[in-house]
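Hi U.,

Before I forget, here's the chain from the pilot set. I'm dumping it here mostly so it's searchable later in email.
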Amino acid sequence: MVDSLRRCNLDLQMSLENVSLKYNEEIEKRNNINKEIILVKGIAESVETKLNHLEAIRTEIVSNCVLMKERSCALNTLYSQLESAVSQRCQRLVDNTDILERKLREQEAIKSSLEEQIILRDRALEILEEEKNNVADQLQLNYGHFQREIDRVSTENAEIRATAELYSEENQTFKLKLSESDDLITHLQRDITELRLNAQLKDKLLEESELKMRDLEDNLKNKTDALDRAESLVANQESKLAHAERVKSATEDHLHQIQETLENLKNQRADESESLNQRLCSLRTRINTLSELTLKREEIHQRIYFDASAIKDKIKLTEELREIDRQNLKRQAGEIEDLRKLVSTLSEENNGLKVLKGKLETDLKDVKIEYELLQNKLQKLEQNNHNMSSEMRRLEEENSMHIEEKSKLARQLVEVQAVVEKAEEESAEAKLQNQTLINELDSYKSQLVKAKEESSELHECSKHMEDHLKEKERELQKLSARINILGKEADEASLKIGQMCQSISDLTLQLEYARQELSVEKMKQKGLQEQLARKDKERNDLLERSETQWREKLQDIQNEKQQVESDLKDSAEKIKSLQLTIDSKKTETSRGNKKLEKKIADTLSQLEKYREQIKDMNNEKKELCKTLNGREKEIIKLQEDAKQRKEHCEEIAEEKKVIFGQLEQAKLENEKKQKAVDDLTLELNRLKKIEQEYKEFQHQIYANSPPASTQLPAEIGVRVTQTPKSPALSVRLNSLSLLKTPQTTPRSILKQPGSARKRRRVFFAPQPDDTDEDQSPLASTEVDFSKEGIQEAILIVSPQYPTTPKPQTRQIQSPDKTSNIRKTPRKKEPKFNESKGAKQAGKGSVEWFECDRLFGVGVED
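Structure:
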């Protein structure tokens, strides 16, 4: 008994210790649960703060909605202002484009008329060029004829000079021969006088010899006959000498006629002096021979008286002299005939020169006629140039008008650009506002989503709000999508506006380029006009110079004609005067030679002047050809400029077409934007209505809602109002089951007074398999108040019995239960059975108290 009591006491002590331990553990657990409750209260407070924050967010949303409305109103006003401004600008642009089209049509008509006039002028210029070419060809032909005639005249002059030189040479030879013949005649006269003296001496000697040499008369008869023959020969020689004197006079007459021709050929005497000196040397040799012959004759005359042989030699010598005289006379006759031929050729050449002068006069008349025609053509060209200058002035005035119109258009474009820039700035500000609003809407959306989640946990009415909010979210999404679309359209519109601005800037640049081109063309036209004026002046100067030169040449030719006629008259008079007196002619010939030398020098100087004039004419001809080529090039350049202008006008017309197409596209885009703005206004009105409905609903909720403590739903109210009696709250309320405990209290406790059999209902939460022992549910401070968490947290009563794990505790070796300390009635059984029952009771108590799971709040029966 004592042992059993002891055992019972030990068991009681052990059980008390176990109970105390379990009690302490439960106290700790309850403290932990209190801590968790405090945490839950903090979470609830945080939830309340979040709700307050949500309410503040809602108020901010309302204020933002008001601001959105105000901004939408401002945007509507801006859109309306922009639409009005854009419509006005479009109308202005359309009006300006219409005005520009009209002006362009007028310009095109003017341009077409100008092109026709240019074509007509080109044709007239071509005709004038053809006429110029014909005139130039005629001038070239005439100039060629003149050059040929000048060359022919120069060749004839050269030939005349050559013939004159030949005549001068022959004249000199004749003069030398005449001087030689004079010398011979003087010698012959001396010889004759000597012969006469000798004859007288002979007569005297004969008379003396007749007395002395009568014996020798027979022997000397033959000699006397020979002497008679010699005397007859001498008489014949004297007659021949008289005839020679006559011929000499005739030759002198011819020489006087030729002197005028010979005077022109004195320039070449110096070259022929050497030949003449040689001839003089030869003549001197001949004279020496003749002197020797005379000496021989004297010796013969002296020897006549001595030897008949000497007489015969003298006769031979006289015969030789006669032959020499005959040869000289023949030579003189041939030379005289040559001189006559030369005189005839010179007369023929003079006649040819007269004929050439007549031809030249006729050519000059023709040239004067052509010159008058050219002057008429030049006057016509000047008139055409004057008309062209007047037309150019008119075109310049029109260009100035166009430039003013373009400047006005540029100003209007600048104004349009300013308005467009303002619109772009306003659109950028609107975009920024839209972006801020979109960001705010996104933040509001996120906040609304959170509010929806929290409101779904707080109240069932939030479902209706969620539905409304979902609808609103959808509408907001639609609105955001529409806003994005509108933003994209606004971006596209801004891009198109930028493209329009770029096109406008391109047009302004093109206008500036056109202005620059017009200014360049004006400068070119001014330069061309100045060049034309200069060329006209040069042309007039050249024509005046050519006229003066032609007049001077005509005057020079007339003066030369008069001089030639006067020279011919003077030559005739001189010939007559020379025929009268040779001595006076000799003196006059010297003077005439000087005059002729002067005239020859004058003629040579005139020829040099003519050559210089010919060179000047050639240079002028080259300059005229250059000027004609330059004008042709200028005409070609003008034609190219006209073509470029045509192309430029065509490009401008194409650009205008493109601009009109862009304007039409801009109009269509503006219409689309107006439609989009109308849609936006409708959507904004719809949003305003939704916001009003939401405000009314919110007001109704705030007005009709009771305190928050009374609005707890049944699902949450059970959990919130629970007391920390069971370990159920220590674990998340997932798949909990309400179970009956199979354990019973020990009999020793139940047998005590005041004790009764009790059954306890305990919530046993099964331990999750995935979580570890370290991850305790107390570590999580946040509570999942979402709809899914609430649905999972609903208590589900199921008959599943949890399996409590066996405690891993040491078994204390206790003595056998032999004593019953409390002396309660007990059933006596064998020891073996009692020990087993005690062990089983002890194990059950340990299993009930020593569970590793946390206790939750339980419901006791």
